[in-house]
């Protein structure tokens, strides 16, 4: 009997040992699977952290394509990332981001970039580098419009194109006519589009290296740069007529103010080292056959093939850029009580403009968002130097709008002009050009003003009458950045980045 008991005990022991061994195998297998899962989990965490580092770097490069500082051990989630920026070829850089988690796990993500790409600020009929506003039921935008901050649309304007905003798009309950009122045409919380850098030395070098020229009729006004010779004041008046139009060919630079109006032709850009004054209508002698591409389906928004056909058909037509290092002023600003004027045809733009302009805008670079550093009275140039000149700008005032010298001291002054009002009017109804400034576009227009081109600025105060229509010149879209009319003739500043590939 005892032998039988011993046999039973031995059998039970074998079963227990076998079960224990199987349990041990199971536990080890589970631990290995858990470790593998944790390893995979940490690897994925490190990858996403590395990608966060890449995205952080892309935003910095989008603001300044020459930025090479990188980051070191920036906390993110339960890990951190470090980023190096390395030049890898002409106009090409690599973003190398290392994502790390604890326990130790590192993943490297590399992105190749092109940095010398056409500036996307020129892709819009209306582009404002902070807060944009379309206030009026008689405003019509034919083309896309964008704000780097909020975009307010009040009283039901018409937008035949897409709307983009760095923050919200707000129609204040009025609605938006045109396909811009459709949900799929409204794009909020978009990445900021970089404005071209305003660097006088860069533009002077660009003009000096080229063969640009400005004529009025058969009279050569200057070649390349005006204002760098002792006999030149640096301030210039250009008036074109049917018989003697203004001719701008290539890239040219004027060191001071430019007052311009009348008939104009050529293909090129005039850059003013201070202000540009639009004294009256500016109209192409040989402009595009129509202000906008055809629209076969009649929805107000031409398809890409129609835009391409229009751009190709008008590639040799007049195309002028008017860029200002400071402000673009339309109309006769001297018609104001500030200058003793008491008539009804006042300039009015100052009533809105002088509440704009301060760079005390905080970390996001946009006014009235209440973010960190906004309104603290301290100039954080890393975030708030919107025009990248190293100087704090306060709200605009009359000194920003006035010519820097008496109009009688300007070169190429027409006979009979003794004050600004002899040149400028508040009845402008048509301007054809691409206008750019990273300061203010301030205007008092005439009835039914039509812009054929683009208005690109940091701040905008256009006071119009009856109707305001903006027709985008498709030839200036960045998708045509490799076309001769874009690269050889207009020469808008480069800006932004383009991802070449991820590794």
Q: Could you explain how this protein is built, in words?
A:
The chain is of the alpha/beta class. The chain has two domains: 2-114, 2-Layer Sandwich (Pantoate--beta-alanine Ligase, Chain: A,domain 2); 196-357 and 395-495, no CATH class. Helices cover 20% and strands 33% of the residues. It contains seven helices and 26 strands. The protein has helices at 2-63, 200-209, 304-313, 350-353, 381-384, 398-401, 484-490, and strands at residues 71-76, 79-89, 92-101, 105-114, 126-128, 132-135, 139-142, 145-147, 151-154, 158-160, 163-165, 169-170, 186-187, 213-216, 219-223, 225-226, 236-240, 246-254, 258-272, 276-284, 319-324, 328-330, 430-437, 440-457, 459-472, 498-502. The strands form three sheets. The chain has a six-stranded parallel barrel. Strand 2 and strand 3 (92-101) form a beta hairpin. It is elongated. The chain starts with a helix and ends with a strand. The mean pLDDT is 88.
């Amino acid at each position: 009997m005892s032998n039988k008991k011993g046999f039973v005990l031995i059998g039970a022991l074998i079963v227990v040992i076998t079960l224990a061994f199987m349990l041990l195998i199971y536990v080890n297998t589970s631990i290995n699977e858990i470790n593998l899962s944790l390893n995979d989990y940490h690897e994925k965490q490190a990858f996403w952290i590395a990608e966060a580092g890449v995205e952080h770097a892309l935003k910095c490069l989008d603001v300044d394509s020459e930025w090479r500082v990188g980051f070191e051990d920036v906390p993110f989630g339960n890990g951190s990332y470090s980023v190096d920026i390395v030049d890898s070829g002409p106009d090409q850089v690599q973003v190398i981001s290392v994502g790390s988690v604890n326990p130790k796990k590192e993943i490297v993500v590399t992105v190749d970039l092109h940095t010398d790409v056409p500036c996307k600020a020129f892709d819009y009929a209306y582009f404002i580098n902070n807060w944009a506003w379309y206030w009026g039921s008689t405003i019509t935008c034919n083309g896309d419009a964008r704000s780097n901050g909020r975009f307010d649309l009040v009283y039901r304007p018409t937008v035949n194109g897409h709307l983009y905003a760095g923050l919200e798009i707000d129609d204040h309950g009025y609605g938006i006519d045109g396909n811009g009122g459709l949900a799929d045409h409204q794009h909020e919380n978009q990445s900021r589009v970089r404005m071209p850098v305003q660097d006088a030395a860069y533009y002077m070098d660009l003009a000096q290296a080229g063969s640009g020229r400005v004529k009025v009729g058969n009279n050569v006004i200057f070649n390349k740069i005006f204002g760098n010779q002792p006999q030149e004041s640096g301030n210039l008046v250009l008036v074109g007529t049917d018989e003697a139009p203004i001719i701008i060919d290539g890239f040219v630079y004027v060191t001071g103010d430019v007052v311009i109006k009348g008939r104009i032709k050529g293909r090129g850009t005039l850059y003013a080292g201070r202000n540009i004054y639009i004294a009256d209508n500016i109209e192409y002698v040989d402009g595009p056959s129509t202000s906008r591409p055809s629209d076969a389906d009649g929805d107000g928004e031409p398809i890409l093939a129609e835009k391409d056909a229009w751009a190709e058909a008008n590639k040799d037509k007049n195309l002028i850029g008017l860029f200002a290092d400071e402000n673009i002023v339309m109309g006769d600003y001297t018609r104001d009580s500030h200058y003793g004027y008491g008539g009804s045809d006042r300039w009015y733009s100052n009533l809105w403009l002088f509440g704009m302009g301060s760079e005390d805008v905080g970390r996001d670079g946009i006014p009235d968002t209440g973010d960190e550093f906004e309104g603290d009275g301290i100039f954080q140039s890393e975030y708030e130097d919107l025009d990248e000149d190293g100087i704090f700008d306060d709200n605009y005032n009359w000194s920003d709008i006035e010519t820097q010298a008496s109009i009688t001291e300007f070169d190429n002054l027409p006979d009979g002009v003794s004050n600004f009002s002899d040149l400028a009017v508040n009845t402008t109804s048509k301007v054809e050009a691409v206008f750019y400034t990273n300061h203010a576009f301030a205007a008092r227009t005439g009835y039914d003003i039509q812009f054929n081109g683009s208005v690109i600025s940091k701040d905008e105060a256009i006071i119009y009458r009856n109707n305001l229509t903006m027709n985008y010149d498709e030839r200036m879209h960045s998708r045509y950045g490799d076309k001769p009319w874009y690269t050889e003739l207009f020469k808008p500043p480069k800006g932004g980045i383009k991802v070449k590939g991820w590794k």
